[in-house]
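Hello again, I could really use a second opinion on something today. Take your time with it, there's no hurry, and the full record follows here:

___
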Amino acid sequence: MRVLFAGLPEKSHVFTMVPLAWALTAAGHEVLMANAPSLSEAVTGAGLVAAPVGTDHDVHQDMARARGSQDADVANWSRLGYGDVDHASLVERYSISVPYGFARYNDPVVEDLVALARDWQPDLVVRDPIAYAGAIAARACGAAHARLLWCADVYGQARGTFVELAQDVPADQRVDPLADWIDERGSAYGVSCDEELLNGQFTLDTLPESLRPPSDLHQVSMRYVPYNGAAVQWDWLREQPKRPRVCVTLGRTNTEAYGGDYVDVTGLLRSLSRLDADIVAALMPEQAEHLGDLPPNVLAASGVALSTLLPTCSAVVHHGGWGTFSTALVNAVPQLALSTLVADQELRGRNLEDSGAGLFLHHTDAAPERVADLTRRLLEDPSYAAAAGRLRDESAALPTPHAVVGELERLVAAR
């Protein structure tokens, strides 16, 4: 097969796609990773073939100017199941999300992506759940297409709710900003919007089933495999910790896109240092440069890959990002998520807490002493480690990307 990956133009989203792209390549299939030009280095650094399309987006400029947008109602897709929201509210959400989010990411690449797909003729397009340009390209060239999730499927859930609620709205009063935008962008290629185009023929989901929202869509389960980019197994990571090790990591996106982290990093580290534990702050240099002198049991480690660090940890304190959350999950590490409300972070945090494998805290409630108290609870109450172990086992029971390749071959052949 020829498989075209169409990621959202963000590095963390590209990283989510790499293990499946590797598996398809190793199985003898041709793989291209299409994305905005600035992501080419991230793709080629993973040993994959980049196909630059369109131009880079300018979304980060607005993100930095509007840091509070991560906690705005319109950014929170966690409470949009049937019974949680009305039709008018979903219309309003799409009316804002399409021009200020979806279009800003997709419009700069859609023309080139369609041209690439028509020229290269992939059999399958694997796209990010909100990389709708990939859906248009798949339809324009006749390929099968799947969504590969980097989140709980809140976008699929919201769309299902929207369609169900729309049935109670008179036909002449129905408004669908998402479909209108897809129709406008797709018209030049003979593509119009329908629910299959929005949801794909099937959805690749790496969450354990117990953490997923309800869905009627065709789901293909796949084990999450961490990929962090460049990784080194440092000497100190090969040594058995003499006491519990706690990782503190706040990801890249808030610093790179929103102008800084949402919590007091220095205060957190000083408060956590009073625990009977070793604290490893896995931070970017920009995050670590203002920390000053740190207590002796706190190590600021820039450039350490979470896939090498978290297996040695007894707990992790993080920002709620998908890669950190999932890497902790497959390594059975109890988690404390200090999140904003953007995308699925509230739903995923609440479901994690309900599972008993961690705790969820909105970043405005993340006073350093409270974070230290909750982290102490994760370390001292064995039920958290036990629940994290159950989620690890549930995840390990899912098919590997290698095993999923055969299922993808069957699904594409059936079309």
User: Anything to note?
Assistant: The two ends are 13 Å apart (CA to CA). The longest helix spans residues 87-120.
